[in-house]
Amino acid sequence: MRDPARPAPGSATLGLIRSRARARPDAPAILDGDRSLSYRGLLEQARVRARELAAAAVGPGDRVAVETGPGTGFAVALLASWLLGAVPVPVDPASPAQRRAYQLRQAGCVACLAAPGADGLAAQVTAEIRADGAAGSSPGPTAAGLAYILFTSGSTGQPKGVEVGHAGLVNVLIHCGQMFRLRPGRGMLAHCSPAFDMALVETLAPLVMGGTVVVAPAHAARNPERFAAWLRGAPVHAAAATPTMFRMLLPYLSDALAEAVVGSGGEVLPAALAEQLHSVTKELWNGYGPTEATIAALLGLVGPAQAGPLQGPLQGPLPDPVPIGRPIAGMAAEILDGRLRPVEPGERGELCLSGTGLAAGYVNDPELTREAFVTGPAGNRIYRTGDICSQREDGQYEFHGRRDDQVKIRGHRIELGEIEMVAERSPSVACAVAVTCGPEPARAGVYLALLPAAGSRPDPVAVTADLRRQLPPYMVPARVIMLAELPRNQAGKVDRAAVRRHVDAVLRTGGDGRGPSPR
Number of structural domains, the chain? Predict the structure, then answer.
């Protein structure tokens, strides 16, 4: 049995946190409600959980399901896993049981660390995996260097697990720690679901830098007025959130984050919102990073603002939406055409990333890994993001949309194809088309248009209820709309633009969408 007091090699993040604990063992590591946990106490709790895992024969490379909310439980679970060289796999307790079970089996989780009150699914599934000796439970060749596996929406109808390495994680944590100016005596807000990779920054960057994780009250996001009131009395000097969350908080923020360094990510940042945030925060950064590139691959200081420690602010009027920044240390970006050739300066193309933060691939899916991680023009390994971008003269990158049907809603990456495939499992549905609609891109929502199967008349309410049983809340369409016929383009493919126009018209005029076909 591995001794949890001696961390497995490669857990660089754990090593830095242990160094902070040796230097200031009684300093506050986590403020969670009315409880303060010191660095010494945090590591003691992690060792206790690590011994529990070790007693269940968990060792290097084994995958451990982590089902917790933000805060103490999440931090302890990560550190406990790394003490044994194991790989934590965060899953969202709010997701449907079927989805969570798939994730745990796909990752091959052989043990779980769950919060009190969990429904027991993770314990049941991990026990079944151990009993079955499933192939997925055997660590792959890259397991020794993995820091975690995080699942994102997948276009095949199933979520895909991204295998992220220790080197990329510690690289981005140090960079973000400097960006947020974290140090002893400074706290960072923790409020994101652990199934969203921003949670790793807000939980670990403060600890790596010797600061404090300040955990928001449970369900704070559901009441922005109360959330802002809590922030006003909390020792929060840094915060990261999606533009959607910031927009909800803005009417109530006042001076709550006046001295805080703030980071926006997960969605496009409109210039108007950025300007409003400037009036209530000390400093604003905008970032970009798919899970496959370890949380944040590009970051940029949004001006006008005081000079930051890493790079200067944007000059002149803010572009709309705000640029997504420049590559962080250890990462590189390039804009390529459809044949993976560099485009001319300023031209649009696909953003491709390379460097320390690139994921190892998708767990137990070599074919998908080969499609996304390819050889670039310089012979290096690159990740094809699928995002259409261009590079400005000042080096910042601008986002212009997707080359496929993947979107981001409230910070969550969603493959529209996954929603469609789930809906089409119903025998009453002939075809499903998921689209995003809204008054502006930053406020778009997902809607589902359905072509009924012959002789069927699906009930939109029943369809929505069925989707809610199979998809996490953020993927459930805001509304289901029926189609009289399916619009197609000249190539015979679904004309998504026509479907989107039809959905927009139905939203403006009401009704269920039956009637004239969309054009």
Answer: 1
